[in-house]
Amino acid sequence: MNNPLVRWLALAGVLVALLLLAVGVCVGSTGFENLLTPLLHPERDPGQTAMAQQIVWQIRLPRTAGAWAAGALLGLAGAVAQGLFRNPLADPYLLGSASGASLGVALALAALGGGAGMLGGGSTGSMMNGAVAVSVFSSSVWVRIGLTGAAFVGAVAAVLLTLLLSRGVGHTLRLLLAGVVVGVVLGATTHLVLLFTPDSLQAMQAFMLGSTAFVGWTSFSLMAGVWLVCVLAAWLLARVLDGLSLGDATALSLGLPVAPMRAALVAVLALATGTAVAQTGLIAFVGLAAPHLVRSIVKTTHAHLMLLSSLVGGVLLMGADTLARGLLAPQELPVGVLTAVLGGGYLLWLMHRGSRHNGGAA
Amino acid sequence: MSAGYFDGGRFAIDFERRGMNALCMYLFRLPKCWLEGRAPVRFAQVKEEPAQQAGDTEQNALASCLMVVFALALAFMFPNAAQALQVTDDRGVTVTLPAAPQRIVSLLPSLAETVCELGRCDRIVGVDRYSTYPNSLQKLTQVGGGLDPNIEMIVALKPDVVLMAKSSRAGERLEALGIKVFALEPKTHADVQRVMLNLGQLLDVPDAQRIWRAIDAGVSAAAQSLPPKARGAKVYFEVNEGPYAAGESSFIGETLTRLGAKNIVPAKLGPFPKLNPEFIVRANPDVILIGQRSAGSLMARPGWQSIRALRENRVCIFPTEEANVLVRPGPRMAEAARIMAKCLETKSPANGGKP
C-alpha cells in the first residue's frame, strides 16, 4: 500500500485497458475504422450510426470487454497459482487446471449432445427443427453457466490430482512434473472424448485454439461477475500467501488457518481458470506472463500482486485479441495462438535478461 | 487417327487383358487389314469417335497397321516397360503398375466414391473410417483415418494400389514398404474431373469421360431447374463454427456460383477462411447454408439476430448425411447441387436478393 508504484501501475492498467477498449471497438472485419465518430455524432449519417451501434454494442464491445475479463481471470489465476505453489513457473496450464477445465467442457458437451439438444437451441427450436446439439459457442445463459460449472469441476479435479501426485507443494520439480503429466493426460482424454463425439469435434477444435469470436454480453457478464468474486476472495486470502512465501511453519506460527485458506485459494484458482476456459477456450501464457510482468516492475505483497497481474492479464489478452482481429481482417487468427507466440517470446526475453543481470533464472 | 494408338499404356493394358489370344489376333489381322485398307484393331476410344474412324483413308490404315507392328516390336523388346500401366498422380509421380489394380485401398471418401462411380467398387478392399458411401463400403475393413491410417492393416490387405490425399504423410511410409501409392487432391470442380479421368485411366474404365459429363450435366440441370427469382441471393455457407466459411474459390462455392448465388466470401480470401463473425453480420446474407453440427448456436451468436437470413428464417440446416454430400468433392457433386438448389428455391427471397 505504501509503494506508490503500485498505485501508478494499477492506474496505468485501467487507463491502458480503456484505451484498448476504444481501439478494440474500432478494429473489426474491415481492419481499423473509426466508429466512434458516427456513434458520437448521430446526426451526420443516421444509417451509418445505426450500423455502428449494432456492430459496437452487440459484437465488438462485449467481445473486447470479454477478452479483458478472460485475461483478468487468467492473470489472477496465474498470480494465485504462483503464490500458492511458491513457484514462479506455476500457471493455470502447467498445473493441469486448464486441461481439466477443457475436459469438463468436452464431457459436458458429449453428455448434452445426445439428449438435451433443446437446451442450446431453446429460443430457436422452432426454426432449427428442434434436434440441434448444444454448441460450445452458444450464448444461452444456461449453457454458459453449465459449461462454466463443468469447467470448474474439471479444473478443481485437475489441481487436486496434481497435488496428489506431487504429494504437496514442497517439492518444486515433483509439482511441475505432476502438473505436466496431469495436463498431458487430461488433454489426451479430451481428444479421446471428442473422437467419440464427432458432432462437437470441429467446434471444440476451433474452441481449444482459444477464441473470443462469439463472446457476447452473457459470457462477459458471467466472467466479470466471477472476476469480482475471485478478486475479492483473493484479496481476503492474500495474507496466507505472504505467510506461505516464508514457509509453512512461518505461516502457521502467524496463527493463520493455513489448510482451509489453501483450499479456498485452490477453489479461486479453479473458478477463475474454469470460467475463462469455458468462455474463451485455451488461451496460453497470459496467466504465466502477467505476474512476471508485474514482478519485473514492482516488488509488493500478494494482495497487490494478484490485483495488478489481473489488470495486466486483461490488458494483454485485450491487446492480443485486437491484433488477432486486425492483422488479417476480415480473417481471424486464433487468439490463443497469438498469446502463445507473444507470451512465449516475452518470457524468453525475460529469462535472457534475467540470466544476464543476475546470473540466474528470471 | 485416334490417340488410342499412340497410347502405349492403353495398348499394354489391352494386351495384358487379352493375353496371347490378342497377340495371335493382331498377327492374324495384320495382312488382312493391309489388304482391306482399314484399321486393324478397334479400341474403346476409337469407337467414341466414329466420324474420324469413317474418315480413315487407305494411307491412314497403312499407318495404323505399321503402328501395330511397331508397338508389338516394342512389346517384345521391352516387355516390362510396354506391359506396364503408367499413370501420373497429383504429386507428379508416375505410378507404374503391371495391370489395372484388383485390390484397392482408399483413404479419402471422395476417392472411394469416385472408384465406385466408375463401377469398380468391388475392387476396394479397405477404406478410411470416413468413407461411408456407398453403403457397401461400410462392410469393408476400416484402416483408420486419411491422416492417421493404420499402416499395418493396409499392408495386411495386400493392395495393388492405395488411393489417398496428396496432403497425407502416410504415402512415403507406404511406398517405403513397397506399396504403390496414387495420391490425388480433389479440391475444385476441375479437380473432380481430373481425378475421375485419372482414376478411369488407372482402373481401365474407358467411359470415365462420359461418366464425368453426366455428373457435370447434372450440376447444370440443377442450375437450370432454379426459377429466376431464386437466383442472385447473397449466401453464406458455413463449414464449421470457427467460423470457417466456404468461399467462392472452394468446391462448394463453385457449385453455388453455378446455381446463380452470390457468395458473401470473395475468392481472394481463399477456399475456407476463418472469418471474423462480424464480417458475416455486415455482409447480411439473404440465405445461410449450414450443417446440423454447427447450427446450434446460430441464432444466439452476438449480433446475428439482425442478419436477414435469420430474421426471415432463410436458413437451410443440412443433416449430417446431406452435409457429407455437400462437402465432398466427388461424384456426388450433382446431388450436392440439387440439394443446394432445393435450398435456394425454398429459401431465397422472392426479389432475387435485392432488398
Q: How would you sum up this structure, described in words?
A:
The complex is a heterodimer of chains A (362) and B (355). Chain A is an all-alpha fold and 362 residues long. Chain A has helices at residues 4-26, 36-40, 46-84, 97-114, 118-121, 141-166, 172-195, 198-208, 217-244, 248-253, 258-280, 286-297, 302-326, 335-358, and strands at residues 27-28, 31-32. Chain A contains 14 helices and two strands. Chain A has one domain (4-358): Orthogonal Bundle (ABC transporter involved in vitamin B12 uptake, BtuC). With 355 residues, chain B is α/β, with parallel strands linked by helices. Chain B has three domains: 3-82, no CATH class; 85-206, Nitrogenase molybdenum iron protein domain (Rossmann fold), CATH 3.40.50; 225-347, 3-Layer(aba) Sandwich (Rossmann fold), CATH 3.40.50.1980. Chain B is 45% helix and 13% strand. Chain B contains 15 helices and twelve strands. Chain B has helices at 8-36, 44-47, 50-54, 58-77, 79-83, 109-117, 151-156, 170-176, 189-202, 208-225, 251-258, 277-283, 308-311, 320-327, 333-347, and strands at residues 85-88, 94-97, 104-106, 124-127, 141-142, 161-165, 181-184, 234-240, 244-245, 262-263, 287-291, 315-318. A five-stranded parallel sheet of chain B has the order 5-4-3-6-7, sandwiched between helices. In chain B, strands 8, 9, 10, 11 and 12 form a five-stranded mixed sheet that branches. The radius of gyration of chain B is 25 Å and the shape is elongated. Residues 1-57 of chain B have low confidence and may be disordered.
Report the span from N to C terminus of chain B: 58 Å
* Total number of beta strands of chain B: 12
Q: Superfamily at the CATH H level of the largest domain in chain B? A: Nitrogenase molybdenum iron protein domain
> Which stretches of chain A are low in confidence, meaning pLDDT under 50 for 5 or more residues running?
114-132
Largest interface: A-B, 47 and 32 residues
CA-atom Rg of chain B in angstroms: 25 Å
Name the average pLDDT of chain B.
Answer: 79
Query: Given this structure, which CATH class of chain A is correct?
Result: Mainly Alpha
Strand content of chain B: 5-15%
Kindly state the percentage of residues in helix of chain B. 40-55%
Provide the helix percentage of chain A.
over 70%
Architecture of chain A in CATH? Orthogonal Bundle
Q: Which shape of chain A, going by the Cα principal axes?
A: globular
What kind of sheet is the major sheet of chain A? Answer: 2 strands, antiparallel
CATH class of the largest domain in chain B: Alpha Beta
User: Would you tell me which CATH topology of the largest domain in chain B applies?
Assistant: Rossmann fold
Report the CATH superfamily of chain A.
Answer: ABC transporter involved in vitamin B12 uptake, BtuC
Number of helices of chain A: 14
Radius of gyration of chain A: 21 Å
